[in-house]
User: Which sequence fits this backbone?
């Protein structure tokens, strides 16, 4: 049975101790670019002294492996306000249907987005608003329909959800065949919450470019925020 390992480093904006606490605040995490049934991450108890965290990886994308896990160690850099994450992925294969690159890329992107979200105090896949969900959903759909740069589909007025894809976005589509975003507006006690999930199809599955996923996630958030009421 073959074992595959991949190691490297990732610079973080957050201080080491604070980022570890943020990452381990909950046990279960879901990839930004896959449904939970396809890819999810389970954080094991951390080693507080070494700032080491082991994450076991589960979902349909891991069916080709007996085990799939990642080990992270976060160390402060010189000024202590930022840090560096050293990672090692380890896959024990049981078949030749290999999904290593997708899994590595997805988890590193999740780490990068979590770092930026924690440091800048916002979420990459939800925004709270002060408006009622039903009225806001209608305005939101109209805003995307009136903009010729998007293709809308699957509008469900009862569940307040729809999908949108980009018709023309050269900077975003450079590495991807398709980018589809599913947007849902949820009523809260006061106001509403706009949530979204992202599905992408890469042009070349053999490339590992976490930065391109990060760029897309940030761009989609900016696109959605631009449709908010003034």
Assistant:
């Amino acid at each position: 049975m073959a074992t595959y390992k991949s190691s490297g480093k990732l610079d973080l904006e957050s201080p080491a101790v604070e980022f570890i606490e943020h990452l381990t605040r909950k046990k279960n995490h879901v990839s930004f670019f896959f449904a939970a049934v396809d890819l999810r991450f389970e954080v094991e108890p951390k080693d507080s002294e070494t700032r080491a965290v082991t994450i076991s990886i589960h979902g349909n994308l891991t069916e080709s492996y007996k085990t799939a896990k990642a080990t992270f160690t976060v160390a402060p850099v010189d000024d202590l306000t930022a840090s560096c994450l050293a990672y090692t992925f380890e896959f024990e294969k049981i078949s030749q249907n290999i999904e290593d690159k997708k899994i590595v890329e997805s988890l590193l992107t999740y780490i990068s987005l979590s770092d930026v979200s924690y440091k800048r105090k916002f979420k990459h896949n939800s925004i709270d608003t002060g408006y009622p969900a039903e009225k806001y959903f209608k305005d939101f759909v109209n805003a995307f329909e009136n903009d010729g740069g998007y293709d809308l589909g699957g509008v469900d007025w009862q569940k307040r959800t729809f999908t949108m894809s980009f018709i023309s976005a050269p900077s975003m589509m450079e590495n991807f065949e398709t980018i589809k975003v599913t947007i849902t507006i949820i009523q809260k006690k006061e106001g509403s919450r706009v949530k979204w999930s992202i599905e992408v199809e890469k042009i070349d599955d053999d490339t590992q470019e976490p930065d391109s996923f990060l760029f897309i996630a940030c761009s989609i958030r900016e696109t959605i925020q631009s449709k908010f009421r003034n």
